[in-house]
UniProtKB/TrEMBL annotation:
The keyword DNA-binding does not apply. Belongs to the short-chain dehydrogenases/reductases (SDR) family. The chain crosses the membrane at residues 302-321. The keyword Methyltransferase does not apply. GO terms for cellular component: membrane. Residues 7-149 form the Ketoreductase domain. Keywords: Membrane, Oxidoreductase, Transmembrane, Transmembrane helix. It comes from the Bacteria. This is SDR family oxidoreductase. GO terms for molecular function: oxidoreductase activity. NCBIfam families: PRK06139.1 (NF004792). It comes from Methylobacterium soli.
Length: 327
């Protein structure tokens, strides 16, 4: 869909972070939006901002772990706009810390939100796409779907599952050329999600310098709505993780384990928090987590150029070392 004006877009997890940025991005293109999350007040605020940009928007309170609620979301979108063109599975959460230190229900809830929530979204969207002969399903996965993240075992399990699920759907639908299943793998993104997830590590999470803006992901969603692709990374660390784990899974796991352990060793103490996993928080809904602003992190373009320079330098060093060994 090169022209997104009047396209009907469903966005889950639309109250804050990437989902909020996504709603505003599609609103700027004149799409008609069905916005879903648990907090109605937060959704109403986003919907108001979308309407101020000339877009139509409805709000549907939805817990993505409830398949009946997800089906009700699809029905409400159809009733309001007549069809669904694009469905974006964006709701997500995580538990950070030693697996055995978190209450088991937090791990279960993480898998329900991330994996089952995406599956319920597909279950609601695909029959409608097949009935009308077109549609695009976009699922926000994360680089955690390519390389396992230590101290985020349930999150990693759900994201690996999502990648396999969406890849399977693509093959099922290969005879329907106008129905697309797109998977998005962002690198670390500066959203309130770090606060909304659970942290039982006893240490403050540090995103590090390679953190991207939520708008970088939302613009990728807009691009995929116009030009669908199977799997798309956002940020060079995600591309690097994909290549590294595909070529050398053992060393990649080892390096990631060392890096996260060292990060925790240096991190400042923090109280345990269960975030918004069990129930929504009452914080002010926002797009950014504020980390990039506080630490002066540059734009995605500069990060990508820096990453390319580092990768190029490492490649030249490796080639030089190899040439020396050969002589």
């Amino acid at each position: 869909m090169n022209d997104l004006r009047d396209a009907v877009v469903v966005v889950t997890g639309a109250s804050s972070g990437i989902g909020r940025a996504t709603a505003l991005a599609f609103a700027r293109h004149g799409a008609r939006l069905a916005l879903a999350a648990r907090r109605v007040e937060a959704l109403e605020e986003v919907a108001g901002l979308c309407r101020s940009r000339g877009a139509e928007a409805i709000v549907v309170s939805t817990d993505v772990t409830d398949p009946r609620a997800v089906e009700r979301l699809a029905t409400r979108a159809e009733e309001a706009f007549g069809r669904i063109d694009i469905w974006i599975n964006n709701a997500g959460t995580g538990v950070f810390g030693p697996y055995q230190d978190a209450p088991l229900d937090l791990h279960r809830r993480t898998v329900e939100i991330n994996l089952l929530g995406g599956m319920y979204g597909a279950y609601a969207a695909l029959p409608r796409f097949l009935g009308q002969g077109h549609g695009t399903l976009i699922t926000n996965i994360s680089l955690g779907g390519w390389a396992p993240a230590p101290f985020a075992a349930a999150y990693t399990a759900s994201k690996f599952g999502l990648r396999g699920f969406t890849a399977s759907l693509r093959q099922e639908l290969r005879r329907h050329p106008d129905i697309h299943v797109c998977s998005v793998f962002p690198a670390m993104v500066d959203t309130p999600g770090l606060e909304h997830g659970a942290n039982v590590s006893g240490r403050r999470i540090d995103t590090g310098p390679l953190v991207y803006a939520p708008e970088d992901v939302s613009e990728t969603f807009v691009h995929l709505a116009r030009h669908p692709h199977d799997e798309v990374a956002v940020g060079w660390p995600a591309r690097a993780a994909q290549a590294a784990y595909a070529l050398a899974p053992g060393p990649t796991e080892h390096i990631m384990g060392i890096a996260i352990h060292r990060m925790l060793d240096r991190a400042r103490p923090a109280r345990q928090s269960y975030g918004a996993i069990r129930q929504p928080l009452s914080d002010r809904p926002r797009i950014s987590g504020g980390w990039r602003r506080r630490h002066g992190v540059p734009s995605a373009r500069i990060l990508s150029l820096a990453g390319a320079a580092l990768l190029g330098g490492a490649t030249l060093l490796a080639l030089g070392a190899r040439a020396k060994r050969q002589h």
